[in-house]
Design goal:
The structure is a single chain. The chain has 527 residues and is α/β, with parallel strands linked by helices. The protein is 37% helix and 15% strand. It has three domains: 86 residues, Arc Repressor Mutant, subunit A (Orthogonal Bundle), CATH 1.10.10; 116 residues, Aspartate Aminotransferase, domain 1 (Alpha-Beta Complex), CATH 3.90.1150; 237 residues, Aspartate Aminotransferase, domain 2 (3-Layer(aba) Sandwich), CATH 3.40.640.10. It contains 16 helices and 17 strands. α1 packs across α3. The longest helix is centred in the C-terminal third of the chain and has 26 residues.
Length: 527
């Protein structure tokens, strides 16, 4: 194993293990070593613990978990015998997969092309490309490419025309921005990873919403940040996901179910103030615009209050705006929310955006908006990793973000999301009336409470039933939200009824307590 591969420290592994909830065994209590081995297998199988990750030494992990060294040693030996761990004297132990095993199953990873005809993907929240807009923009971008081909093609801060387009869009939304405040990255995840590398050190506290974006939470764990979750508050008139008739005339123009179900999520400002003043986190990571996974839209008054508390605490606010353009349920003429950074420019605010959610994930174009000095610092750091984003993709994104193209592209994508939201509200009410959710004002998903049914059990059943399901515990920093799942609004509206029928069949199998739901010794995750 090479030295540059991921090393997981005892505290980081302990935090991951705490989120790995195993099926309850039938009969006698499971021995501690089998629990530990099963948790590691589960983390590897779900992709939450990378293959090739170096694990702590037995003595170090025993101290961190307050277990005997014999228990850890026995668990490691069980993992080695099953092919999930490889050890070499003097080099330590690292995670592997048994020979012939399938790659880690992670509902948040795209379905491989050869499985797309057999698998219903309810895991990845990403839209298809808007056509014909993408193809037409690509043709225009190819015409521009020769002008760039004479040089080396490396733009650490991004191609000027795209930086100008992104800056113009921020200015249009109410935050005056110049190109020197923009850095183009390889996707939003590239932007988030870069900002994390610059701002967050090992052991630094990071305040996060609960729930929050699963991939960012995992990246922070792997980088050994100390996550401080701040739960959402839930208020407002309750609504039932079982409503069969979405109310298009509801106040604010938001699609709503009828009264009697889930309340709306919003920031708990009292808890945010307590965490910011008490924990003094280095960074606060928030998604105020059509939040992933709940779809919540945070009001400006709450944003101002959080920024003021962060400024007092000396905390950098990292704002994820990747879904900011996706307000499919807000009133006509409302437009896109003002950027959070526009509300208090004296606060330390770094904003991350993306072309992936509104335009197309295949472009792999993201960006950072920050003070020019921070942009220069980020550009210096990134040349040691990816140097810059691909030029052609940047030119395509610049075309789609242009003043002439963006309104039509956005209208196309929002119509698709709105139609799917309506169809999903109806179908869930018909086939899974016991599940509860609040129809959000935008975003890419519904955040659904499954009652007493475990989201992890649903995901396991879905693996056998050909349905990818994103379990709610993936969106919690501490394994919370066990009885939730995220359902993306990416299935075409016409296909939603069949998709929900398949989801209901998986839920019935999981609820029956069959081999997909309980402890099955023949299943690779059984312990």
């Amino acid at each position: 194993m090479a030295d540059w591969q991921t090393t997981v420290t005892p505290p980081a592994l302990a935090r991951l293990l705490a989120t790995a909830r195993l099926p309850e065994p039938a009969g006698a209590r499971r021995p501690a070593y089998r629990t530990l081995a099963g948790q590691v297998r589960l983390l590897v199988s779900e992709g939450r613990l990378p293959v090739g990750a170096r694990l702590p030494a037995e003595r170090e992990l025993a101290l961190a978990l307050q277990l005997s060294r014999t228990t850890v040693a026995t668990a490691y030996e069980a993992l080695r015998s099953e092919g999930y761990l490889h050890s070499r004297r003097g080099s330590g132990s690292w995670t592997t997969l048994p020979e012939g095993a399938a790659p880690p199953s992670d509902a948040l990873h795209p379905v491989p092309p050869d499985e797309q005809g057999r698998t219903l993907d309810l895991g990845v929240a990403a839209l298809p490309a808007p056509q014909p807009f993408l193809s037409e923009a690509a043709a225009r971008a190819v015409e521009q490419l020769p002008a760039y081909a004479a040089g080396h093609g490396h733009y650490p801060t991004g191609v000027p025309v795209l930086r100008e387009a992104v800056a113009r869009r921020y200015t249009e939304r109410g935050l005056p921005t110049t190109p020197d405040q923009i850095l183009i990255t390889i996707g939003a995840m590239g932007a988030l990873h870069l900002v994390q590398r610059v701002l967050i050190g090992r052991g630094d506290r990071v305040a996060v919403e609960a729930p929050s974006y699963a991939h960012t939470l995992q990246a922070l764990r792997i980088n050994e940040a100390r996550l401080v979750p701040v739960p959402y508050a839930w208020s407002g008139a309750p609504r039932r996901g079982a409503s069969r008739t979405p109310d298009r005339a509801a106040p604010g123009g938001i699609l709503r179910g009828r009264p009697g179900g889930s309340p709306r999520p919003e920031w708990d400002l009292a808890e945010w103030r307590r965490v910011l003043s008490g924990a003094a986190p280095r960074v606060a990571y928030v998604i105020p615009d059509f939040h992933n996974p709940t779809g919540a839209l945070v009001g400006e008054e709450q944003r101002r209050a959080l920024l003021a508390a962060a400024r007092t605490a000396g905390t950098v606010v990292l704002v994820d705006e990747t879904t900011a353009e996706l307000g499919w349920g807000v009133p006509e003429g409302t437009g896109v929310p003002r950027p959070t950074a526009a509300l208090d420019r004296s606060a330390q605010v770094v904003t991350v955006g993306s072309a992936g959610k509104l335009l197309w994930g295949g472009l792999r174009i993201g960006w950072v908006r920050a003070a020019p000095a921070m942009i220069r610092r980020l550009a210096t750091e990134r040349v040691y990793s990816d140097v810059g984003a691909p030029v052609l993709e940047q030119l395509i994104a610049a075309e789609l973000l242009g003043e002439q193209q963006l309104p039509a592209v956005r209208a196309h994508q929002l119509t698709r999301l709105r139609d799917t939201a309506e169809a999903l509200t109806t179908a869930l009410g018909e086939h899974l009336p016991q599940w509860r959710f609040a129809v959000p004002p935008g975003g890419l998903a519904f955040w659904v409470s499954t009652g007493t049914l475990s989201g992890a059990a649903l995901a396991r059943a879905g693996e056998h039933g050909g349905v990818r399901i994103a379990a709610g515990n993936r969106f919690g920093s501490d394994g919370a939200f066990e009885h939730h799942i995220r359902i993306p609004l990416t299935v075409p509206a016409a296909a939603v009824p069949d998709a929900v029928r398949r989801l209901a069949a998986v839920a019935a199998r999981a609820a029956d307590g069959g081999r997909w739901h309980g402890a099955d010794e023949s299943h690779p995750l059984a312990v």
